[in-house]
Structures are given as C-alpha cells and as structure tokens.
Write a structure and sequence with these properties.
This protein is an alpha/beta fold. The chain folds into two domains: 229 residues, Acetylglutamate kinase-like (Carbamate kinase, 3-Layer(aba) Sandwich); 150 residues, VC0802-like, CATH 3.30.2130. It is built from 15 helices and 16 strands. Strand 5 and strand 6 form a beta hairpin. Helix 2 runs parallel beside helix 4, helix 3 runs parallel beside helix 6 and helix 4 packs antiparallel against helix 5. The two termini are 42 Å apart. The protein binds aspartic acid and magnesium ion (MG). The site of magnesium ion (MG) has 5 residues, from helix 8.
Amino acid sequence: MGDLLVMKFGGTSMGSAERIRVAARLTSEQSAKRPVVVVVSAMSKVTDLLLDSLRKAEAGDQADLDANLEKLSERHRECCRGLLPKEKQDQATAGVERLIADFARIAKGVMMLGERPPRSVDEAVAVGERLSAYLMALHMECEGIPAVAVNAADVIATDAVFGNATPLMEPTRARAAAVLRPLLDQHKVPVVTGFNGSTLDHRPTTLGRGGSDFSASILAAVLDAAELWIWTDVDGIMSGDPRLVSDARVLPEITYAEAAELAYNGAKVLHPRTLAPLAERGIPVWSKNSFAPEKPGTRILPRVDAGHGPHAVTSMTDVALVSMEPASAAVSGTKLMARALDGLARANVEILAFTSSSYRQSFCFLVRQSELERALEFLEEDLALELVHGYLKPIEVDADVGLIAVVGEGMRGTPGLAGRMFTAISKHNINIIAIAQGSSELTIAIVVRRSGLEQAVRAIHGEF
Ligand code: ASP
Ligand code: MG
C-alpha cells in the first residue's frame, strides 16, 4: 500500500453539515488518485457534552441528563437535514438515534451505580466519533464515493489504561490488516473513529483528550502510509501563538522533534503523542486548514535544512513550580532527587522542566496545575520521614508562574542564542525564575512570573 494517504479531520472540520461536505470533498479529491483512510473526531464540543452528561448521570441528575441527550440528538439531526438527501433522512436519523441510545444506556448504568467506571466512560464517549464517522460515510455514499464507517475499537489495540491508553502496535497492525485492508482492496474509503480503541480482550478504551490525531498517526504507521494529513482550523504550525504575537507566521517545514516539543509545551495544533509512531518509518505529516485548503500548511519531516536559531516559541500558563531543598549538608541531594522523581513517576505526573543547583543541592520542577495536588500527595507521603525529622525543608509551591519554550533544531551548537533571549526578556524588566535546556539543545525552557509571560513571549518572538 505504498501510496496510501491517511487524512484526519478534527472537531471543527466535522462541526456541521457544511463542514462535513468540505471534508468529504477533500477526501474524494484524493481518493480519486490513491487509497485513502479517513479518521474523524466527534463534531466540535460533542465530547465535552458527552462527558458532562456522564457527570450529570453520576450525580443522579435525570433532568439535566435528558436535556443534554436532547441537545446531542438535535445537533446530529440538524446535521442529517443539512447533509443528506430527503430519501435518506429516515435511515440516517434512525442510525443516529441508535448510537445515541447506546450512549443513553451507558449513562443510565452510571446513574444507577452513582459512579463512572473508567471503561464505561471510554465506551460512552466514543459515541461522539461513531456519530460523526457514521454521518460522513453515509454522505460520501450518497455522493457516489464508496465509504464505510469503522469503529476503531475493532482496529486499534491498546493497553488497559482507560482514558489515556497506549497503543499496542503489532496487534494493531494485525487488526488493521484484517479490518481495513479488505475495504481498501474493494476501493472503499474506511471512515474510522478517532480517539478510541480496545484492549486485547476487547474492553473499550480511549487515547486521551484530543487523541484523534494520535489515532491517525497510529493507523498511518501500521498501514505503512505514504503520508498523513491532519486537517484543522488553523493554517499550520506557527512560529508563535497568534493571540500573543501579532507577526506570528506559519512554518513551512519543521522536524518531528520540533513539532513534538511544541505540542508538549502547550502549542495546541497536534496531540503530543502523535509523532512518535511515525518517526521510525519517517512518514511525513502535513498540518492543513480545512477552512483554507488551498494554503500549503506545515510539513513535518524527520529532518529539515534549518537555519541557525529558534524556530518557534510557545507558552503554558496552568503550571506550578515545586521547589525542594535539603535542610542540611548531611543529606544527599541526589538521594532526595531520586526519591522525589520516583514519587512523581508513580503518581503518573509529567515533569515539564527540571533544574538543580549543585552546592545547596536544591532542585525544582514544573508540573501542570491539574496534576499538582496528586504530585504533592505522593511527594509528602514518600518523604514524610525526611520532612518530619527536618532533613528536608518544607516543599515550596509557586503557582503564579508561566512556562516559555523556545524550540528549534537550529539552536544546536549556535552560541549566543540564550543570551539574546534573556536580554530580550530583561529589557521588559521581567525576572527569570528558572531555566532548563537539555543537552539536545532543541528547547530552552524559561519560567517567569505569570504576569510577565505574554510580554516575554512577544519579546523573544520579536528578537528572532
Ligand atoms: N473528540 C475527542 C476530544 O475532544 C478526540 C479528538 O477530538 O481528538 O478529545
Ligand atoms: Mg483535536
């Protein structure tokens, strides 16, 4: 399948009848030339609505749950009316109602239990993607493009970490060969649900919020696709957040490593785990705008001829800096660090940046505010003895900070860049709280006061 193209349409690209028409047209332009697999997100905001409905169900709130179900139904019925010919309306509405009934059945179970078992949540939220895949495939059929909706629970095999599962690539390869190849051989376009999968014993899972990008890259990898196109509502990956930086521009080309750094450091264009499955096979990715398909977008490749200097700057606000320091020189800072990192690993908390000083053996690390409570719980439990006996100073938390990440392969081995960044920031009288640069020299992470974050981002973008 040397020339296979995988195309993924995000929530806004699937957000209405009109948008689904465009997605189908973009698909048919390509499927006329080569085999295509489509991966779709739920219509925009539908996943939020489903998750909210499950919370309502857990709380026993029947009236609010019913109101949500009505909203869900109306949104998709409206889409049917705008998308499909008269003679298909009854079939389409019945199909939509069947899927919504699946969701309602699980929500009812949640209400009876008074809790939301993770695997039931995963099965229920995937209904958003099943609805959009169903409507897209039906519309394509009506337009004379043979297409089949496919539930990724039958294709993507994962571990059993419900809500944030990791794919098992070899079993997924076998499932994709069994489910998708026959469709491609019959010249049909599989329209696969993004976001979901199932364990080896077929319990439903999801890949984490925004996971449809990841679904698409998993399928591109196991099908040995020639390319992956990710359709969103922005022109591509940008040199800075356009809401902060007025002269931010679309980057024509960046590397997998740069794109992954940007995604992990808060750029919203790609799910952070998207690029990993592709890197090994070097499958190129395009990030494109379905609202302006004539624009080239950004091409993501294993290597690009980068100039010297950073490529892009991104920032994160909902973060907190945690600082730890031994209370006396008799305590090994290295041991404390090891204990702290072990606790964070077991708490499943991601460290966004880490720095340490050698003499006082103090260290600090940056985590997401949403993970702060869990991080502190594990740290305080693991280090309870040290804290009680005064070997460790009380753990300090500063949540009034923001992270800036300056990313670019071209920074490697180029002296003077950090100096220029810091000078640009200091001109605005913004104090730098912590700095981290890994020896790959791909990213420089800078922690500043929250109030100075936007200014600092603009200053750095302006400098380069
Ligand atoms: N619909 C899912 C979400 O909103 C997955 C996705 O859109 O990528 O998180
Ligand atoms: Mg998305």
